[in-house]
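The following block was generated as part of the benchmark described in Methods. Ligand: flavin-adenine dinucleotide.
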Amino acid sequence: MTGDPFETEERRRLRELTRRFVEREVRPHLDEWERAGEVPRALHRRAAEIGLLGIGFAEEVGGSGGDLVDSVVVTEELIRAGGSSGLVAALFTHGIALPHIVATGRADLVERFVRPTLAGERIGCLAVTEPDGGSDVAGIRTKAAEDGDDYIVNGTKTFITSGARADFATAAVQTADGLRLLVVEGFRVTRRLDKMGWHCSDTAELAFVGLRVPRSRVVGGFAELMTHFAAERISLAVQAYATAERCLDLTLAWVRDRHTFGRPLASRQLVRHRLAEMARQVEVARTYVRHVAVRVASGERLVTEVAMAKNTAVASCDHVVDQAVQLHGGLGYIRDAEVERHYRDARIMGIGGGTTEIMNEIIAKQLGV
Ligand SMILES: Cc1cc2nc3c(=O)[nH]c(=O)nc-3n(C[C@H](O)[C@H](O)[C@H](O)COP(=O)(O)OP(=O)(O)OC[C@H]3O[C@@H](n4cnc5c(N)ncnc54)[C@H](O)[C@@H]3O)c2cc1C
């Protein structure tokens, strides 16, 4: 389509680069990483070498340039080419850990945290959720008490993506002045958490016990945390429709091939209509999420539309992965089938980055109720 920001020459090349990366560096190893419970650091370095890790970050901070639309292109292709949302979560955790640090414009923090992470040398995570709750961000309890030029931080974070491998965390803490985001190092990993899906993405519980952190490591407060949630929610929405699209593609190939009662499955009207409905839901989700992403990339501060985009994509993904497993029959329940992994991976989409219910709260507030 002429004028489609997703189909510029540059973005086609970015899509091609991502596809080749998945085919060469990811697909041969993904099953092994799913069993290992994490992706290797070497993958971060490889993704950095070809400029993929730094997409969406300015060259001045060690990134490769590009904006949110470029990040959407990369996320789409990482999944459509045979990767997974778990892979995106593990390899691109810096997408939620770094933006607050970059936004400070502080050279010392960029050199210590941003540049080495975008070079694939360090791993960062975003630590907001606590055992007592995640949805109520304002209610978090991890305490940062002032001690001269430092804070002494005590608390527990849980469900933290890449937490087991992370060298640093952008953590939400309570100070005497309210909620702050503080970049911390030296925390303990108290537990690696086993999960339903996202097996290649490590998830951890972290303990901050008397951590001494310079007060100069504050990189924002509640407002900044909320602002950057937009990009995280759009990323999850993209992961959701891209997962659905991949499952549709896999199912289309399967129903053409699979014969029952002497005919291909694809020849049955019931099957054809199910595929049509899956395709419709993918198309609607992709179109709307991309539309919202373009507006956010152009500088609009959207909250309600982002919440709507996430819920739209999650609903479509939930429907499509379920139908994909069903149409694969017994194979759909077996680990050999890629749709089985997507089915498990997809369940987190309506929970992470703000649940479906919390998105609906945001939408309802906008409606004035
Ligand atoms: C695999 C995985 C990776 C994650 N990665 C990270 C990460 O990297 N960093 C991080 O900080 N967190 C992470 N999380 C945590 C995630 O963001 C939270 O689980 C999520 O925000 C929900 O918080 P909670 O689990 O405390 O549920 P709760 O807040 O306890 O909610 C429980 C249920 O109640 C509903 N609910 C809550 N409040 C309301 C309300 N007012 N009205 C109606 N319903 C309500 C919720 O929608 C949910 O269904 C991750 C979680 C998982 C499972």
